[in-house]
Model the fold of this input.
Amino acid sequence: MNRLANSASPYLLQHANNPVDWYPWGTEALQRAKDENKLILVSIGYSACHWCHVMEHESFEDAEVAALMNEHFVCIKVDREERPDVDQIYMSAVQLMTNRGGWPLNCICLPDQRPIYGGTYYQKHDWMNILMSLADFYYNRPDEAIEYAVRLTEGIQQYESVNLITEQPEYELSNLQAILTNWKKYLDTTEGGSGRAPKFPMPNNWLFLMRYAHHVKDDSLAQLVKLTLHKMAFGGIYDHIGGGFARYSVDGRWHVPHFEKMLYDNAQLIGLYAEAYAWSNNDLYKEVVEETITFVQRELTSHEYGFYSALDADSEGVEGKFYTFTKAEVEEVLGDDADLFCIYYHVVEDGNWEEEHTNVFYRKEQDAILAKTLGLSTEELQAFIAAAKAKMFEARGTRIRPGLDNKILASWNGLMLKGLCEAYRVFDKDAHLQLALNNAAFIHQNLINTDGRLTRIYKKDALGEKPVAFLDDYANVIEAYLALYEVTFDFKWLELARSLADTAIQYYYNEADGMFFYTAADDEQLIARKSEIMDGVISSSNSVMARNLKRLGMLFEVSRYEEVSAQLLRNVMPFMEKYGSAYANWCLLLLEEIGGLYEVAITGNDADDMRAEMEQFYIPDKIMLGGNVENLPLLQNRTGDDTRIFVCKDKTCGLPALSAAEAVKQIWLS
Done:
């Protein structure tokens, strides 16, 4: 076994038996490269990554390839989820070199960590040729290698950077309309989603587009949002038997998934579908939320109520084997009931995707329409399918399961906690709140140090270790605690959110350019200190912090928070029109700046019941606060036994309302 054998990362442990002399990222490997003047080979991936497994099998398990790597390189394996700071730098390098990125990510660097070459997946023959060429290039033409590394490193340091903008612009709806005009060109009006293939769920995109459509009453855009949510829920990207979403579909119609299931996707999609239900009252959305939460509880929740990171795409070395069935296998489980199940989920004898005779379950027809065609009532069809799904789930449970990545990450736990809060907000189900409270307590007890700093990864025996966390850990946990406060009115969660925000400003905020760095001021210094600005499948840490600080500033009436939030948006605003999809969460903040946020304060003995009543109305542009303690400026002199609702906006409050309907009327008439 190599040096990865002592790692806690499931991904690194997968490579512990490779003949490659792997090191984890750290002082030992980096010092050896300098001492021996050897190139560094940085290979980055994650445990649920299918093509990472393929490259490992083809190259890293091969003795010939390993001998070549060991002779000429100091080889370092990195789990991108443990060290996103390292991944960020070398992903920037590869994108600058090739205009594309992904995982596995492989970068060849000088002994001082500056990259000179990089790419993603390589077949064995190509990989060996590249390695031999690079080794020859460095040993025979080191000056050229250094010259290229200098230019590339300068590019990395400038990549995804912004300028400080001091003048505050006037934001208008026309700014968002300009962004949408370009954005709409890339939306798929036939199958939903963005572009053609592959298709990623992109929850932040559809959350913004839903709220924008609601705000401006854009019916065509609203229909496109509904089409996308419907197609994803009906497609094979959704696990119809066990709940939860795969990371993306490889085709353009959401049919065939890349089967890995990530916590961060499911966390955000829970929140998206919950809000979509509040918006349009579609029972399909409620079903998706309930089934996805059940999946996360069953398969991604530790006994301490931390949430695990991912399930692998592969089992028994085959992608999707756990989830797919031949028609004969369905018939063996369901017997005479198989025909109707196969009609419902489009199971065919020859199989409905590339693997011979294998089927990915997906839906096309609405229950009412299909039931009528089959001569059944809708209720009869739904009861039949529910019973058949239970049998298929039981049969599937006897198979060898995909591997579990049992890392517990602060950032992704924050996303899941927020998703649970959104589900509770909409459906008022105590089980959702209890799971949220259990996880919130887990984060507080295990991932926040005694000095108030976050630790990214939960380790049982990490006492005395310096906590290492990144800006996304702070941003997503703060956002989650803000959401938890809004559904409980328990001030301790709001206090925690504020404390973490103060820590983030202290260690990550850069006054010189008005953005947050991704790494802390006292973290390991890499070849560049980067800021995460563009929104991807997960919203960027800077955009989340900007929205957090906007809310904290309003709740506590602290101008410093609102000033930093405003500075972040000013800096990013010039980039948003060209590529709105990559600034979706920033667009949400811009929408809130233009339309304003309502502060809904509820006081009195029945404040929580009244809060639940308020949530029956779809009002996305609001902040909820309340209880019977005067712990926030807006609650002062407003508490008492009688339950009242105060609707405030732009530092002006209306007359107290005595019912949710009365309060909502104030909002709708304002």
